[in-house]
Amino acid sequence: MEKLRRIEALHARPGSEGERHAAERARERIQARLKELEAEEPPIEFRFSMADQWSRHLFVALLRRYGIRPYRYRGQRRTTVMAHLSRAFVNETLWPEFLELQSTLMAYFDALTDRVIEQALEVRAGEAEEQPEAAPVLAPQEHQGSLM
């Protein structure tokens, strides 16, 4: 949680920060930057596509945190998030902050998933080992089974 707050403070633009109020001041600076950019450049409608539900939830929460109303049109996929924003705010603040928060959150989920698997199955979790390529006797068979 603290790492996520520090990431937000990093993207809020420089300013004096105290330990206890850093996150609130960071949000206020970002909101002030948003208003400043909107005065210079009128907001336009953006469409964002998120690869997974966790990224979408994080992105929607980040928009709401800065007073931006996320929405989607009837018929759009659930992975789509629409919002009216200035291009400069998206490019300079929102998207870089989202990518850093998303990376941190995914690393946390990855570590948590491995820990749960290791505790439940009592074996090491993680990726399959990589081996040098060998001439196969039989061609490997593809399997695309359903997860549901």
How would you describe this protein?
- There is one protein chain.
- The model is unreliable at 13-17 (pLDDT under 50).
- The protein is mainly alpha-helical and 148 residues long.
- It has helices at 2-10, 22-40, 53-65, 87-121, and strands at residues 44-49, 80-85.
- The two termini are 32 Å apart.
- 51% of the residues lie in helices and 8% in strands.
- A two-stranded antiparallel ribbon has the order 1-2.
Q: Give the low-pLDDT segments.
A: 13-17
Strand order of the largest sheet: 1-2
Distance between the ends: 32 Å
| Cα gyration radius (Å) | 21 Å
Shape: elongated
Short overview:
The protein has 148 residues and is mainly alpha-helical. Helix content is 51%, strand content 8%.
Essential attributes:
4 helices, 148 residues, elongated, two-stranded antiparallel sheet
Describe the secondary-structure layout.
Elements: H1 2-10, H2 22-40, E1 44-49, H3 53-65, E2 80-85, H4 87-121
Antiparallel strand pairs: 1-2
Helix pairs in contact: 1-2, 1-4, 3-4
